[in-house]
Amino acid sequence: MAAPLVPNTPASSLSRATGIAPGLGLCVLLALLAIRVRDASGLAALNPVVVALVAGIALRTAFRLPVWLRPGTAFAVRPVLRAAIVLLGLQVTAGQLLSIGGGALALAFCSVALTVPFTIWLGGVLGVSTPLAQLIGTGTGICGASAIVAANQVVRGKQEDVAYALAVITLCGTASLLLYPELAPLLGLGPRAYGLWAGASIHEVVQAVGAAAAGGPISVETGTITKLARVVLLAPAVLALGAWVRRGQPKGGHLGAPMPWFAFGFLAMVAVASTGMVPPAAIGGSKQLVPLMLAASVAALGLNTDLRALHAQGVRPLLLGIAASVFVSLIGLIGALLA
After folding, report:
1. How many C-beta atoms surround the C-beta of residue 17 within 10 A?
2. Integer distance in angstroms from the first to the last C-alpha of the chain?
3. What is the pTM for the complete model shown?
4. Do residues 235 and 218 make contact, with C-beta atoms less than 8 angstroms apart?
5. CA-CA distance, 65 to 123, in Å (whole number)?
């Protein structure tokens, strides 16, 4: 006769929390150090998520990850990450999105809807694994590191896939941040068109805003809101990607892509923020907390990433990321000239 299920008790909950605490504490410490490095450098575009990833991989390379740290790192990769994505929704309102006009919103939609499938298709042509191509596509088309770690909740790529995608997106996004201000005068772009181009095609929010700032106040306002429109598309994109992955599973077999309920939480937070009833302090707190949570989650990925397996990926994913970046840049430029 099967033993009856024992409900959770305070003692069992305390035991689970005690098991999670060391690994989670290490991830949070690495995240705090990454943010401190960003602040000390004076470079707003230096993403603490990437710094935390590098720190995690460095520790993993120097020392074998102890078994007692693994429950906490697993908790950081899943629940902490999903909570961060939900809280990210507080930073966007429907009023902000509508203020840039239908043409700009259509451009943001096209940037995501065309770039992600193009990158996955080109990845197949180049021989890049499907999960890695999906991660590079979402990172390029939507919002960089946040999109990659969120999409991996349904893609279920290897730790090395996530690390490589983050590295590629960081490299390409940084190149865009440096090149766009130099190219704008050559292309004859006005402030609004330049802001649209940056917001519709540069990967990270901070990179897009930083590049747009070179065009002045109108450019930075337009670029920021256009970028936020792409961020809002994170939720439907992850839902669509999850449905696609589930459709590819054998009938009756194990479904590798769970329903990403956190995406609905993200949309719910956007709706709440749009009411105007959220205290400014709560929104400001989310802007401080979300980068910390994302950095902690990616630090956990780094702690579980084998550098040798990362090196074995070769140069083809990098070429894919460059091609995807050029593709989304062209879409953004054409749309900015037409909008």
Report:
1. 13
2. 69
3. 0.78
4. no
5. 32
Output helix, strand, coil percentages for the chain, rounded to the nearest 5.
Answer: 80, 0, 20
Q: Environment class of residue 173 by beta-carbon count within 10 Å: exposed (0-12), middle (13-18) or buried (19+)?
A: buried
Over the stretch 126-168, which tens digit does the pLDDT of each residue have?
999 999 999 999 999 998 888 898 898 888 888 889 888 988 8
Question: Hey, what are 4's tokens?
Answer: 């009856």
Cβ atoms of residues 33 and 55 within 8 Å: yes
Structure tokens of 328?
Answer: 């989304």
For 106-141, give one letter per residue: b (16+ CB within 10 A) or e.
Answer: ebbbbbbbebbebbbebbeeeebbebbbbbbbbbbb
Q: Determine the length of the chain.
A: 339
DSSP state of 140: I
Calculate ∠ Cα 85-303-134, nearest 5°. Answer: 50
pLDDT score at 124: 94
Query: How far is 57 from 322, CA to CA, in rounded Å?
Result: 23
The span from the CA of 257 to the CA of 245, in Å, is 6
Residues 6+ apart with CB under 8 A from 337: 189, 193
